[in-house]
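[agent] plan:
  1. take the single chain provided in the ticket
  2. run structure prediction with default settings
  3. attach structure tokens to the ticket
  4. add a short note for the reviewer (M.T.)
[agent] executing step 1
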Amino acid sequence: MSEYAQRSAKSRGRAVPMEKCTLRTEYMRDRDRILHCKSFRRLKHKTQVFIAPEGDHYRTRLTHTLEVSQIARTIARALRLNEDLTEAVALGHDLGHTPFGHAGERALRECAGAFEHNRQSLRVVDVLENGCGLNLTWEVRDGILNHKKGMFPSTLEGRVVNLSDRIAYINHDIDDAIRADVLDMKDIPKKLVEVLGETHGNRINRMVMDVVENSMERGEVRMSPDMEDYTNELRDFLFSAVYMSGKAKENEKKVTTLIRMLWNQYTANPEDMPEEYRESIGCWGIEQVAVDYIAGMTDGYALKKFSALYVPQSWQ
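[agent] step 2 finished; step 3 output follows
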């Protein structure tokens, strides 16, 4: 590995020390703990961009996570960084995301006054999983917390995931938007197509190669200034053409209403939450527990709970 890579032997460790494994490094163990946890499995039923799409090929929060992991591992291997640490951060970075994508995140933030999915992801691995957290290493936790744009993880591996997250969602959201007839390739600014390529694979390859070619000088991981400008321009285009478009937004008011009604119900009637959540109210308070319960829901489970609470049920 590179002299700049984070060695597991030099980890800052875990909150609760553990006996070393004879087969796996500390970061391999973290990766495995994340991969086998319930929050990770629930990602397959959480929205990425399009709420309740009809079709099997739209990204979910799980497929997004896997694409981030693969891109990040490619960059980490090329730069001779710690691939196990990179993979662990990538697999865990969105564990705290709400149902219904960023629409759900905005709705829960409005209810609770403050909510960020990266902080909730850290809370999942520190507190919520297994009732006591996953006891991950400091470096994995730092990467999960600081994976969003504009944040700065302490390790280069965490910075690789930070960039890979943007590379993944910008490109797969274009792919999904074209599939949904929200976008046509001819809508993308011609300059960006010429620079980045016409296909999903070409764009990812161009961005990844740019990161590899412009990183590791003085121990940094970064895009070139020009590529960062092009990437930001493409992201801004997606916001105006896709994320704020009619088809992507048409269900957002419904999502906001659903999340708010669940929030009001659970904060006023905590007995409607499962026992494992009610038991933690004395420690964390009713609002935090309601956040934990709602944020952990899949799209389908949130709809099921809403229906049970507010939609008349058939009876005999």
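[agent] step 4 note for reviewer: The chain has one domain: 26-249.
[agent] ticket updated
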